[in-house]
Amino acid sequence: MKRFTCQRCRACCNNIQGNFREEEIKEFKLAFKKLESQGTYLAIEPEKFSIPLFPHEAKKMKELAYRIGIDFSPVPKIFMIDSKTGYSIILEWDLGYSDCPFFDGDKCLIYNYRPLTCQSFPIFPSFLLSSQEEYILLDRCSQSKRYRELNKDEIEGCFENEIKASLLFSKELNRYKTTIEELVEKQLITPLVLEKDRAIKMLRECERANRIV
């Protein structure tokens, strides 16, 4: 079997909001319900999830959008409210679009700078769900069916670059998590523990006042 190559079918660039199964959405909601007791909140519901962006990815994409004249406004996805400063700390952004604004016809306008989630598609880090596997092969990619019957070693040979990107995503996620935990432990950040609706209201107030980090 040949190594996977993108055929530009647009499946990963168009209609990308809310593509998780019902049981997966329940898992996300349950996990974040527990995190609310630690002062970590979801700003959007899983039904509206599109492409997750690390803060540095969102920043770079906004710079690129400005440079090439594209209207791009990612939305806060996972956040805390720091009681010391009153600022909202965005732990993860969401692309915020059903159709990616960087996809033009049959090409990605920021291909060399696309986020890790895009680089890893159709490989998905399954630790985000209740799975014992390191990753899963997403059905959303029309080509993935061709690789379903392969064993793990064969899949890793065909999706070498995508798996590397998926592992980098996992590593980066752990790095952000560890950094936040250290800041909280050192009391450099003190997350407010609120009702979710109140936390989201404060997030919106911070957005209007440009008190976002």
Q: What does this 3D model show about the protein?
A:
The protein is α+β, with helices and mostly antiparallel strands. It has one domain (22-208). The chain is 37% helix and 12% strand. The chain contains 6 helices and 8 strands. It has helices at 22-35, 55-68, 116-120, 152-158, 160-185, 196-208; strands at residues 41-42, 52-53, 75-81, 88-94, 103-104, 107-108, 123-124, 136-137. Strands 1-3-4-2 form a 4-stranded antiparallel β-sheet. Strand 5 (103-104) and strand 6 form a beta hairpin. The protein is globular and about 55 Å long.
How far apart the termini lie comes to: 45 Å
Q: What's the arrangement of strands in the largest beta sheet?
A: 1-3-4-2
Strand content: 5-15%
Major β-sheet, in short? 4 strands, antiparallel
Number of domains: 1
What string, H for helix and E for strand, traces the elements in order? HEEHEEEEHEEHHH
Integer average pLDDT = 88
Low-confidence stretches: none
What Rg do the Cα atoms give?
18 Å
Give the % helix.
Answer: 25-40%
| Count of strand segments | 8
